[in-house]
Write a structure and sequence with these properties.
Elements: H1 2-42, E1 47-50, H2 71-81, E2 86-96, E3 112-114, E4 117-122, H3 124-135, E5 141-145, E6 148-152, E7 157-167, E8 170-184, E9 188-200, E10 217-230, E11 234-239, E12 247-256
Antiparallel strand pairs: 1-10, 2-5, 2-6, 2-12, 3-4, 4-11, 7-8, 8-9, 9-10, 11-12
Length: about 260
Amino acid sequence: MTSTATAGARSNPAERFRVIRAVVIILPLAAGLLILHRAWNSKLPELVLLPPTTTITHNPLPERWIPGSWGWMWWLRDALLGKRTPVNCDAEVFQLTELPAVGALDLGKPALATNGLQMWSLNAAQFENARVFFRGANQNKAQSFSPRISTADGIVASLFNGNAVPVGGTMIDVGFQFQVLPRTRKDKTDVTLSVKWTELLDPSSGTDAGATNLSALRTNLWQAARAQLPIGNGFLLIQAPSETQPGMVLLLHIGRK
């Protein structure tokens, strides 16, 4: 009995040593991976064009396990992990029959340019100048929208302004759709966004049953992008007019509290 107890007592320090050694090895490794992850994120391109059909989702742990109606659990989550940073997204969309010359804005070379699409990351002064400039293009402006979304870090928010129209036996949303996912960092905000603007060209072009002809629908703008914006910066997207689409301008400002 004495020898058995002695052996058990001797095994405890060895077991504790193994645990301490594992912690000493794992913690620096985890810290190193976290630093590499943050460094990689900080070096992401300012603007990246995504496929228009991109689905914007974000469902991390532990949020995916918490029912929306469990307010006490969300309070506990905030108490343990910290409250999410509030984010305000202010957008302005202009449909222009002709795009005015933007050289006077001194925007510099676009961060991304492809197939008649140009995108810039603008500082506060450039963004305000661009907003005043496009608001003043009244002689060429056909329509405009000014959607605003209040959300928070890691929360996908959506906005729709329009109507559901019957097409081919199904209902299709026709109007302006905007979706955004902000991820806040120390001095930047990663924003994944999707914007789609469709309109009904000829409401009278329907069948006897009241269904709309698909050819009467036009997609003016349908784009998805990811922008890494320093705090105070904004985002500008310009789509040149074509035979099938009007010219479009999207201005997006991200405000953080």
